[in-house]
Design goal:
The complex is a heterodimer of chains A (315) and B (317). Chain A has 315 residues and is mainly alpha-helical. Helices cover 77% and strands 0% of the residues of chain A. The termini of chain A are close together. Chain B is an all-alpha fold. Chain B has a single domain (48-77, 90-316), classed as MetI-like fold, CATH 1.10.3720. Chain B has helices at 5-9, 41-69, 107-143, 145-159, 163-172, 178-205, 208-215, 220-238, 240-256, 268-275, 284-314. In chain B, helix 6 (178-205) crosses helix 8 (220-238), helix 9 packs parallel to helix 10 (268-275) and helix 9 (240-256) packs antiparallel against helix 11 (284-314). Classes of the chains: A mainly alpha (315), B mainly alpha (317). The interface between A and B is large, with 84 and 70 residues.
Amino acid sequence: MIHRATARYAARLATVLVLVSVATFALLEFIPGDRLAAVLPEGATPEMRAAAEERFGLNGSSAERYFTWLGHALQGDLGRSMQSQVPVTESVLERLPVTLELAALSIVLALLVAVPIGVYSGYRPGSVVDRIVTFVCSVTLSIPSFLLGVLLVFVFAVTLSALPVTGWTPLSEGLVPHIRSLILPVVTLAAVETVGFIRLLRNDMVATLQQDFVLSARARGLSTPRILLAHALRPSAFSLLTVMGVSLGRLIGGTVIVETLFSLPGLGTLVVTAITGRDYLLVQGIVLVVAVAYVLLNALVDLTYPLLDPRVRIS
Amino acid sequence: MNHSPDETASVSVAEPTTTVLPTGGGALLTERPPQTTTLGPVQRRRRRGRDIGAYFGMCWLVAIVLAAVFVDLLPLPAPDVIGDKYSLPAFQSIGHVLGTDQLGRDQLSRALHGARISLSVAIGATLLAMLVGTTGGLVAGYFRRAFDVVFDLSTNTILAFPPLILLIALVALREPSAVTLAIGLGVVGAPTFARIARANTIAYAERDFVTAAKSMGTSSFRILAREILPNVLLPVVSFATVVAATLVVAEGSLSFLGLGVPPPTPSWGGMIAAGRESLYENPALVLVPGVFFFLTVFALNRVGDWARDRVGRESSL
């Protein structure tokens, strides 16, 4: 039973990955206009064109090229940037840590803020605190990250001069400057996720606290904090986990905005410069890496379920 | 193992917490108490707050849509007229109520013309997503089998990409125009509608009135169009404003990155990006389009919450 389910799951995962690669290839393959315009000088001879096509693997039919591209991609070779000639994999790996650090810190911050607020809000639904939280959440949810980022810069960097406006200080130049350059981007990214977590936790809590096991815990005389944190929070952890998988995807997308806004050297700024330079091989490579990472992360979330929750294991 | 990575991804467009659907994902493992018909004071207060929010949201949406449609008739300078007063702060000149930008262009006029682009792209994209998504969901949910497989693969592929990354892949290297944007956003929004339509279709396809229609020899097309669609439409439409809100944000994000409708056509995201340059001298350049943007998204969300709340109560599947 379990083996069949695992096999089916693996098959689905493989299908999705293949489709993602096809979609990524097709989206950037069928682009109107001359793809080599960025590389070739004006008035290039047909020989120069042919040589460039050869160099970037653009010769042959679409199907042929897809399989060559996929084959190379599986070996970790995503081609070369059409602008700088640097291997795409190399630039992606160079930029990836910044993006991952931003995403990871944002998730952590969002959780740290959301868990106490969400739990309390759900513990006392309808209270003044809950109503304020709900209102603040719905307001925050309607402020897009690029606007929130600009507003935060205006308040903390321009007006108060408390934090740097833009720029990235690597960890090698000291922990404090590094963190200072990270605060505004991370807060900007975390805001929306925090709201998502709070809403989820609150609604989960309201439902969980009406269940019999909570009543029984109360009857046994357990303290309220213990019931809330040790008993009631546990079932919510699973939905939180699911949402975190989605959050990570949104964060990877969201970093494009935040990195541009704060000029951070991550994947987001790489993809934007690649687009402005019409460096479509680089765009293709980044999109593929991000999408595959997203699918695998969500698969990881799925596989974590049975470890945490016995009820899932049986089905 | 009863859910795929992509089923979880679907909530990235819709909100994760208050979906009316039986999605069968891990998020719904905890049993929820059945909804009671008698309301406590807390619920009643919450509901009243929701109604008021939706009412004001509706008012703002009507106002901004009317303003966007009839902006040419208003006594405002054209959005691309370069005036002689640069970077004028808001509320200091009768001629330019909300000030002017770095090139001396009227901010109010630009914000309202920006509304035109943002709203027409978002509304067009939502309608497109609704049309494609509902059709796909109806067909897949009614015929199942091969249609369901195709449905599953296509929605899962779309949802396998982080939304903004997919948008960039769809739109960024093509000729930027309102139509390109609307199509790209439509693709991103379609799976939400498709899943709602499919789940509802499956639920209604087993109801007696459908069986009755089948037994009378009604054609499948007629059953879908006359029996199932009217029932499926309500939950689908109740998600429209929420999806529209996310699409407005997505359009703004692309414009902010400089990947939206190209200048000099004003767009809210583009105005915010440009105003960022002179944040210190004149914060109104960011705040004016920012307030328009915020109010619109907030209004769409308020109306959307209200609509889903209403539909969730009336059609308990």
